[in-house]
Structures are given as structure tokens and as C-alpha cells.
């Protein structure tokens, strides 16, 4: 949407809805929009989704378009891929990103490769939706942020919306895109609320957004991390610090230009990420900033990421291992070399 | 002993074989322990002392007790995430099991695993596993190592690997069964068929809903048993383990039971029909077994109540133990990441600089 031109018509009305509802409404709208769209996954029909994203859709669209699959991630992800090869537009729900590892061969060795390896003869218009995230005491195997596994793979597009509005506009774009799109949601965002414009909204895949402007330092984040980044940025405003927040939205492709333009202006950057530090999303961002705007940097780029342990169940350990607002604020102050404001 | 139990009343016929009365009362006590512990877990979850996912063995007590009556202490046990009852039946102190649910250092997995990940190497409880089917290949591998290290025969160890009905649809189940059939491994796979995987019935998920038949492709004999019948479960499991030990013949047992409540403590199970819920409640193995024992003169109401009261005190004590136990210290966050210390192992907390400026 262009902001230069005066709108010819009134801007769309907006409603405040949850991230969950935005996803649900978008799935419904796309099922109505294109008869080739169908949903497939575990417990998405009768059970209405483990996190209730697909509530009501089986009743409305029936079992051919809302397909309950057995616990067979490799099988049904691969089956969705096959359907996509002849023009269907499957939207797969994997219950959580952790279980995508069972389907990783179909995703990485097959979905991501097909178009290129078969000389451009086939397209794979499929979406794989799945939530990641820790912090709910789900323990080591159920709390992972594996986005970088997918963001590393040529042939995949990887999206990670942080707001209900982006959940809608990016999911619509993902479903209409002709490539395999990994659509990463987050358990802790499902009940978050935000303004969502009515009507069809289609985001451009591959673009980051400056979600808060500032002049002193850039926080780069995505998904749940962006909400924490905004919270910290607003809090630090009271301390006289002007923080810009860049929400990546798309992890592959990565919008290096928006990141670098921001850091060129602020001269300082901190990446806030929920994945593990080594080889994580932040490593790619830091390298990009180092290469792109080294001369504009006034301090080294810092990363705030999860401690590199299989996430323990116990609350005390889980809190210690995951990155929170307090650590982000601390690192921002360190980079800007300012002391925290006395209470 | 057999004569003694049989002699009392005609109803004793309900307990075929020669299980002594005190053993039968012991089974009731065990079932009562699991029932009480699980109801208390649910309560503790509502009070936010337990977090994450919490799956209960409610309705599966006869299955759990029967299986654990058949297994030797030296045998290795692998389970899914619905594992509290198995931990209790491997004789782990209820307090340590509750402490794991509370995420305390005294928990069986040091508070690091939680409800889904009970482990005790001494008791050879080789883990609850949260990833559906995750336990099946490693269980098969333990059986492989047993075969490599021990002669077959009655003294050989064996493996028991539990899994749910829904879990028979995952690739790992089929790959592992093929390995066990091909290599003649000492393992018993036990399908705890509670007829539901979350909200999905067996018929809606499995093209062959007679799950015990799924061993056929791997030349693994399959046997279906009433999972609400503690003695039938015990005897079938004992026979299967015997074949595993002595013949290196893997076996697939399917135990038919009911899940009394939702998939996990937070699932209200609205998808379930009232008829289905009624059947599940009618076949609830704990009151049924109690009534059978009373009818057979092995217990009377007072004696059964006394057992329940004793169990209640044990579970009270377990909760107290959990409450009184310390939380893990964040300083120990990295304690168990690697067995062999290694240079440059990460130890940074979120927000720590990756390195000191050189
Ligand atoms: C690979 C994988 N996919 C999905 C899940 C989510 N999940 C957890 S339990 C479960 C149902 C399993 O049902 P069943 O095997 O019948 O065991 P029950 O819960 O009835 O004991 C599902 C789908 C998971 N944990 N792992
Ligand atoms: Mg089941």
C-alpha cells in the first residue's frame, strides 16, 4: 500500500482481533477465494486445531477441504506436496514446529528442490503453517525455535509475522504464492490483539518493516521478539533513548536493505531472537550489518538470544534460558553506553 | 495359595489362575495409587504447580498395573508422554514423581523433563517421550544391544516399549518393527489402545483399525487383550516378554482400554459423544476391580476404603515432598548438556556478550 498517493477511496475499516482470529479468518477467506485451497493437518477438523486456529472450518467446508490427517507428518506433508505439484494449494498445519523435523526430508529434500531440480517444469504452491516458541514449560522437545533450519534452505520462503495484521496479509500472500512457504507462528502470539484492516490484504513477501522509528539504535527482531522489542523501545523512550524497531517479517528472503538503511541512520544495532545464539538468525543479521554499513557503526552489533541448552522444564531454568525484555534493555543500554535510569 | 482364593466364593472364578489374594489386593492398591496420583496431578495443574503439558493415565490403571506386574526389574521400559503411572509402578517414590511435575531438583529427571519425560536409569525406566513415536526406535536399539550382549534364555533382559493407538501411524513405528522382526530382537511393543489420539478415533486414523494386525508385515505376532482386565494384561505381557527373552521373538500387544478424560488436563474433550463417555465410565477399571474383589470376598468395603485412605496419605506426602523441594538453580543451567567436557562449550546466558573484547 502506498502512502504517497492520497487514497482514492476511504482506507479499509479495521477491527481489533487476535492473531488467532486473523489466521482463522484468512484461512476461511482463502478457502472461499480459491477452490484449490485445502487445509490438511493433525486435529484441525473435529478437534478444531490444537490451538483452535481452524475452528469452525470443517463444519463450513467439509472433510475434503479440511482434512484431518493421522499422526504421520512425513506422510501428510509429502502428500500435500504431491497435491501442490498438480495445482492444488494445500495449507498444511504442523501442530508445532518441533514435529516438522519428522517431515524435514519432504520439506528440504523435496518441496524446496522440485522447481529447480526439474528445470522449472513444476511449481509447489504449498504453505506449511506451524507455531514455534518456548516459555510455556513444554520442555526440551516442544519449545524450539527452529526457524533457521528453514531460513537456511534455498527454494523455501520463510515468513514469521508478529502482528494480527501481518498474520493476515502474509498468510494471504503465502497461499497465493507459487512456492513452498514456511509460515512460522508463535504460541505466545495467538491471543495477542491488534488492528486488522478489513477486506483482502496481500503483503509483499521478502520485505521487512520499520515498526517504530527512532534515531539512536536499531533493534532487529521477528515474530514474538518484535513485540518484546517494541515494549523495550517504548520503555526506553522514557529514558530519553530513541529506538527504531525493524520487524523482519520475512526470514527468507531477507530484506537486507531495510536493516542496513536503519542502522545507517542509528549507528547501533541489537538483534533480539528466540532461537539459539550460534548460527542463529542474529548471526546472519550481524553479518549483513557488518558487511553493509560497517562504516556507520558506532559499536559492535550485539545479539540477545536463547541460552544454548535443550530447554529445561523447570520454570527457574526456563526463565534463565530464554531471552526477555530485561536482557534486551540491558544490552541496548550497554551498546549505547548508558546507565539504567534509577527508579 | 490358589486354592485359598478359589475356595471362598463362587465369584472367585472371576480371577482365573492362581493369583494369591494379597497379590490381587496389591493390584487394587496400585490402581488406587495411580488413580489418586493422577487426580491430584490434575488438581495441582489447576493450581499452577504443574506447567506445560500433562497427560494422565486415568482409565488406564488396569493396563499399567498389569504390564508392570509382568515386567522384570531388569527389563527396560520405554513409554510415551502418558507416563506417571509407569513411573510409580517402577517403584519410584511418589514424591519424586510429583517433584518432577513440580519441576523440582528432587524430581526423577531433576525437574528438567516434567510430566512427559520421566526417567530413572536405576529403575530402567528409560523415558517418557513427548514426540509421538520417538521412543520406538531407541527402545528397539536397546533390544539390539541386549541381543548383542546377552544369551537368550529366561535370564535375558528384554525391552517393553509402550505407545498409543495414534502412534501406530507414524513412520518410526513401522521402521522399528521391521528392524525388530528382521533382527529377532527381545522387545515387546505394547499399544495402549485408549481408542483416541487427541480427538481422533482409531477408525479415523488407521486404515487397519485392528492395530494388533499391524505386526503382520514384519512377521511380529500381534495379540489383542482387554486392557481393563489387569490379570489378562499381566498374563499376556508375561508370555510376550518370555518369548522375547527366550526366543528373541518380538511381540505386538494391543491393550483395549478407555481414556477417562481429555487428551491432557486442559482438554475438555467436547468432541466426545455422551455415549462414548458413558461407556468409558462404565468400564472404569478401578471401581470395577474393587467391586470384583469385594464380590469375591477378597476385599470388603472397609478394607478397600482403608487402602484408599493409605494411598491418599501417600499422595499427600508426595505433594508435600514436592512443595518442600528446591527449585533448580539457574547456575546449573548448563549442567547436563554434554557428558564429555569440551572446549568452548557455550555457557552464555541471554544478553551476555559472546566474547570479552580482546
Ligand atoms: C510427532 C508428533 N506429532 C504430533 C504430536 C502431538 N501429539 C501429542 S499426543 C498426540 C496423540 C497421540 O495419541 P495416541 O498415540 O493414541 O496416545 P494417547 O495420547 O492416546 O496416549 C499427538 C498428535 C507429537 N507430540 N509428536
Ligand atoms: Mg490413544
From TrEMBL, chain A:
UniProt keywords, alphabetically: Oxidoreductase, Thiamine pyrophosphate
Keyword set includes Oxidoreductase: yes
CDD domains documented for this protein: TPP_PYR_E1-PDHc-beta_like
InterPro entries per record: THDP-binding, Transketo_C/PFOR_II, Transketolase-like_Pyr-bd, Transketolase_C
Gene Ontology molecular-function annotations: magnesium ion binding; oxidoreductase activity
SMART domains according to UniProt: Transket_pyr
Pfam families cross-referenced by the UniProt entry: Transket_pyr (PF02779), Transketolase_C (PF02780)
Domain of life (superkingdom): Bacteria
Cofactor: thiamine diphosphate
The Transketolase-like pyrimidine-binding domain, residue ranges: 17-192
Protein name: Alpha-ketoacid dehydrogenase subunit beta
Organism of this sequence: Cryobacterium melibiosiphilum
UniProtKB/TrEMBL annotation, chain B:
GO biological process: pyruvate decarboxylation to acetyl-CoA
Coiled coil: none
Enzyme class per UniProt: oxidoreductase
Source species, domain of life: Bacteria
Catalytic activity: N(6)-[(R)-lipoyl]-L-lysyl-[protein] + pyruvate + H(+) = N(6)-[(R)-S(8)-acetyldihydrolipoyl]-L-lysyl-[protein] + CO2
Keyword Protein transport among record annotations: no
Pfam family, one: E1_dh
Required co-factors: thiamine diphosphate
Entry's EC annotation: 1.2.4.1
Transmembrane segments: none
Keywords carried by this UniProt record: Oxidoreductase, Pyruvate, Thiamine pyrophosphate
GO molecular function: magnesium ion binding; pyruvate dehydrogenase (acetyl-transferring) activity
Keyword set includes Nucleus: no
Signal peptide positions on this chain: none
Residues annotated as domain Dehydrogenase E1 component: 30-330
UniProt function note: The pyruvate dehydrogenase complex catalyzes the overall conversion of pyruvate to acetyl-CoA and CO(2).
Subunit structure: Heterodimer of an alpha and a beta chain.
Name used for this protein in its record: Pyruvate dehydrogenase E1 component subunit alpha
Source organism of the structure: Cryobacterium melibiosiphilum
Gene designation: pdhA
